[in-house]
Amino acid sequence: MSDAFCSDCKRQTEVVFDHSAGDTVCSECGLVLESHSIDETSEWRTFANESGDNDPVRVGGPTNPLLTDGGLSTVIAKPNGTSGEFLSSSLGRWQNRGSNPDRGLILAFKTIATMSDRLGLVATIKDRANEIYKKVEDQKSSRGRNQDALLAACLYIACRQEDKPRTVKEICSVANGATKKEIGRAKEYIVKQLGLEKGQSVEMGAIHAADFMRRFCSNVGMNNQAVKAAQESVQKSEEFDIRRSPISIAAAVIYIITQISDEKKPLRDISLATGVAEGTIRNSYKDLYPHIAKIIPSWYAKEEDLKNLCSP
């Protein structure tokens, strides 16, 4: 509540502000002192420095520091109807004359955002991919290259750097037709360009089989106990010199756990869920088989259960 002069009471009285109607009402006589007031406070809370004058939460979208104008440029939409054709043509010409220099970046960022959403990636990975693409684009050396492969490679590198790796096959599934080979070439090109810029090798982040386990287990449809056993098994497997890719080891461990459990899964289902070829899973299984007794947790499978596993 605050005080204001009431013309009926002829003195300063406490007033109540009705936010829904925008009315300022005298608390004693009920006289509406002011109506349809404009609420100039924020629509939502950000818990930022509210004492500052530059309140960013009143209106407008978020700024983007990667763009020249911060992402706050205005684009004139084309109105509908015959009367709007003349308006849109004249305004359109003026808009094209001062075309946005960041138009290519905006389109690239939208493509990265779409790919990130389809893969269910968090915002930090999307932002990192945007930063990587901006650095490559600033060097003006990516002309003539497959744009979809370049954007997909930026996303792949961002996932690695944020310790949330995705397989090239997963990235390829949202890359608008870019092949694994094209994405691989684009990745090597980006790493090289960023290395030249920094004068040192680009840190990609190590890949471990455990990084893929929860997602792969979810794709297979394993229960919580089986998932826990698979995660423990894949961590134990790192103690042995198994010269296979982390993705192959993860797929092979999942195959072993499903064969021990009551709900056995065929090799084909494991291959589809992990994106690893059946032959590769078999070869990885052969390498893991001599160490199975030490890899599989004892609380999940007894020695007799392990003996019932088919030898490779």
Automatic annotation (TrEMBL):
GO terms for molecular function: TBP-class protein binding; zinc ion binding. One of its GO terms (cellular component) is nucleus. It holds the Pfam family Zn_Ribbon_TF. Residues 2-34 form the TFIIB-type domain. GO terms for biological process: transcription preinitiation complex assembly. It is found in: Nucleus. Keywords: Metal-binding, Nucleus, Repeat, Transcription, Transcription regulation, Zinc, Zinc-finger. It comes from the Eukaryota. InterPro entries: Cyclin-like_dom, Cyclin-like_sf, TFIIB, TFIIB_CS, TFIIB_cyclin, Znf_TFIIB. The keyword Protease does not apply. Belongs to the TFIIB family. This is Transcription initiation factor IIB-2. The gene is LOC115729042.
